[in-house]
């Protein structure tokens, strides 16, 4: 049954039987739907809320029935010295129906000093997760609920996060609430379909800026030296996108038409910020989105804040977007890095309409807002920016991550059942962003670009300042295109898995006589789908492999005869997904493979070369082409490639090839030969690429990942000391740290002293994380034990960003022996880590577990999963993935051995 039916059942059985707990439906098609109370039933039925963290979908649906409206006044006192803050929330709300159970207000990890209703202090219960107010304390109709509280600042990037700059001692605060963290800032009804307006006032140090969704209307000087910031009421939006940021930020100002823009960063980072890039990309995005949506920007002003310790890339807080400091480089950005910045700016701005103005009702709709913003960001850049390779970058980033995730055992439908907020967070993944965005990308090809745009605009107009569901969005798209999309929605959004297409064709007199598209699906996810692709027919002409024909084809089912292909030139290369319209894996026919491997550099289109290089490496990871043979091919052909996106792809594949070489059980001399060849090639490219080019910087970054011989490490040490220079390559501060991590990884030279000396030179927070990575990556059991102990037993002494820095560096591929020596402790701690119920910590711990190529390691993954069936999704999913990836690695190794024996 659908999830909407489950909600109805839960509410009804709650009314009859005193509550049905928090059971969730078995359906794999969980379109959550708000359900109105049955006619003539005045009381709100019961749904149990256990004394546990988080919020269930069933209880959220109940509370939506209890409350007809809510608006908040939030007063907060902030300072730079204490570890906690105080506040008062006044919630004006309307009780819609007689209550049969307590009303709860979400508030995790704080202290509640008092609760009053309509000015009268009342008794209450507080369990550390939410406040209970007995039904008799509330009346039908309007109620004013006031809560006085305090709460510690967070250090994990959620709630109200506190950061003290190690360079100058300044303190900065920012909020991050998605999906269920607003209640770590204040007592709130923290669910997306209880939209509210927020009137905020803040007392803060005199030299701080305070930022929320509206610009301040008054700032008063207080007798104690602080200032009192007062903000007008916001428009209505959900709690998870409410911002409050404060600190002595550096502020830059500009405009996008009549929209005031501000950009902010902490003082010590400010010299590295290039505000003109930020403002240019912001202005271009506003110009595109307001025209595309047909709706003027709804929130008045637009602030962007670059903040430290951020756990994700950026967040679409209404009119006060936060960005990870990783988007600020301490050297000259490559064009790819600049485009990545432009893309994230456009992504977050797309949310101002799709996500903030119109919001999903519950977290099963999270994918839609994220997928839509992922697609729209690329569309905006392609339509109005300086970048002409936007869709190549979309293919490199979003598509590839989605293809990888969709072939794992943990793949899931794009639209999934989300019974509680803990599982909402676990669905922030490459299916949510990459596959969803890729599926949306094909819809304009399927429906027509203008029909898609009109459907989006109509949807946003109808549901402005409200909440909506998937059916509302798809309904508007279908209506605008005059298409029935129910089956499309079921196949693409409610069913998991990646399809593969291939082609069978015959030619006579150098012309195609017949051509058929064949589609397959994995047995675990057997759905066959329909979508539009473009066939590219390539032939060699004057030593250039050029596309001589492009043919759009709508395929469906297991076989699709393509009658329109008859009479077209016989292909030397048949590219099935030319220009990447579709979300599908492709298999080249044997003739095309032969031509690609002989003429890869003759192919005229860089986008086609990019996709074909990826297709060839897919053959390696699918255990169809031996790794050694691919390495030989790559080193023989990659040297003349000049397109930066193809270079980025090849360099990443060479890094992956090096990692697999360490994992394979092969004789040492063969491994060394392979690794040395890659290292020599990469170092040569660092030195021969155009001076100061993005290609040179890309090859340098690859060098810091694959260098291993004494000669290469000596070169790295000399680059660091200045004894050696490479023409045009300026070693900036972050590149210095990459070299230091490399030298620590192999214990080359005075590796430990390099860390200490560099910290004296660079005492930034980013430097401290690099230093932790350098210490953790050292190939000694002593280092591994120390940092594993820190991660497991001393995590309260470290910020989450530091835990992540250590965990991500602890076991590189060449150090699998040490992973195995500590595996009992690593696997033994899994249930303890999971029991913390801390999603971010579980996610960090999961990065400790590597891909291996041994049955004994795979058996350990299987054992821990068998013994712990209820792990936090952020950890359990990774363990399942590592087991599967390790099996794939074994298949690759077996092919390698078989090929060598032949």
Automatic annotation (TrEMBL):
Residues 71-241 form the Aminopeptidase N-like N-terminal domain. GO terms for cellular component: cytoplasm; extracellular space; membrane. It is an enzyme of class 3 (hydrolase). PANTHER family: PROTEASE M1 ZINC METALLOPROTEASE, PUROMYCIN-SENSITIVE AMINOPEPTIDASE-RELATED. It catalyses: Release of an N-terminal amino acid, Xaa-|-Yaa- from a peptide, amide or arylamide. Xaa is preferably Ala, but may be most amino acids including Pro (slow action). When a terminal hydrophobic residue is followed by a prolyl residue, the two may be released as an intact Xaa-Pro dipeptide. This is Aminopeptidase N. Its cofactor is Zn(2+). Belongs to the peptidase M1 family.
